[in-house]
Amino acid sequence: MAQQSIHRLDNESVGKAFIRYLVPSTIGMLLMAINIVADGIMVGNRLGPVALGGVGIAAPVYTLFVAMSLWIGIGGATRFSALMGAKRTTEARVVFSHAMASIFAVTLLIGLLAFPFRTELAYLLGANAETYPYVSDYLYLMLLFGFVFTMENALSIMVRNDGSPNLAMVSLITTSLLNIGLNYVFLFVLDFGVKGAAAATLLAAFVGMLVLCTHFFKKDNQLRFVRFKPNRKLLLLILVIGFPSFLAEVGMSVFTISHNNVFERLAGTEGVAAFAILNYVHSVMLLAFLGMGSAIQPLVSYYSGAKDQAKIKKTLQLAIGTAFVAGLLFFIFGQFFAATIASVFGDFPDAVMNLATSGIQLFFIAYLFMGTNFVMMTYYQSTGEIRMATWITAAREIVVLLILLSILPVFFGVTGAWLAIPLSELIVLLTIVYYQMRQKKKLQFTEDMTAQFK
């Protein structure tokens, strides 16, 4: 009776389940952040600043593939977990098969269509005569084989949702360590250049996917590839559910580009360099919060399918408490150790260090609110309140942020630019509080009306 099988989450306490997902998810995301930083350090040290700039110019292609894998992966995984919670195992397997086939087909098609036009794409992304060779080398492999890490990323999300967060973490550890090792061999030993850096990323992702495939041999595995007919409604549902995750990845690009432009205008090269330091630090903090959000997605999706509101509420309380404490610690750390954090990235001129130090102290205010916003976005996404999840994602790094970036620097200069994200996060959090209060009033009104007619 596969349809009525007992899932571990049916009997496990919410606290234990939360910790079981939180620890590996957060560790995995932090390793990913370290991996990104290590990539930049090795390319910059071996090939120089022009090559590093070339890889940076080509980065939006990598970001697009990651965004696609999150869009379909999280959309499919959320639906999969909800169906598992409702004990509709056969339908859940169709969702899994449909999602994995879709991510493979879509990303392979994008890469193959773009490959013949990679020269035009390189210049469109911002390459010039100096950086073009590096951009072209990176795009060559990424466009042809980018589907490898989109499949690996989507499968990691699915495996986590099928009750194996530790295996997902092991896969991330394997991928990160192998990527760093292969980067060293390809760049410093074999001298493969930027193509070597791209190859290292792809090969590491492939091995990580092989690690994830061991999940299919576990006795309690529910991920099964089954035959299915292409279903437009199902694909649309997956895309709608996963859209906030796609938008979040796009928002990171908007955040980086908009801040670079503002700091270039306000403080020139020193401002851009100071923001680059902050952005590296922020990527680590951001992925830590993403790890917390990723930890509750499988739980809330499953409990939502099982219609267990008590467990959903308990999970949300634990997640918000954890995110707030983490954000408070990040904030305190930034106030006392801002100069130390900035100095880790090199011996920069005093103008850059002063900007970066004050920037870290101001920007880290955002972490008091950011964690809660991430948790609530994931909660809304996992329970089907896609409009609110989309609003949170769009507002944080696009709508509200761009409005504040266009206003605050006019009155407060560089300080205003640093404060744009903290104020954006606070405003978004206030809209969440307002929305929750309205929902509570509606629920109370419905209950009162029901009681009157009984």
TrEMBL record:
Its main location: membrane. It holds the Pfam family MatE. GO terms for cellular component: plasma membrane. Keywords: Antibiotic resistance, Cell membrane, Membrane, Transmembrane, Transmembrane helix, Transport. GO terms for biological process: response to antibiotic. It is a multi-pass membrane protein. It is found in: Cell membrane. It comes from the Bacteria. GO terms for molecular function: antiporter activity; xenobiotic transmembrane transporter activity. The chain crosses the membrane at residues 21-38, 50-74, 95-118, 138-155, 167-190, 196-213, 234-257, 277-297, 318-345, 351-376, 388-411. InterPro entries: MATE_fam (IPR002528), MATE_MepA-like (IPR045070), MATE_MepA_subfamily (IPR051327), MdtK-like (IPR048279). PANTHER family: SPORULATION PROTEIN YKVU. Belongs to the multi antimicrobial extrusion (MATE) (TC 2.A.66.1) family. MepA subfamily. This is Multidrug export protein MepA. The lineage of its organism: Bacteria, Bacillati, Bacillota, Bacilli, Bacillales.
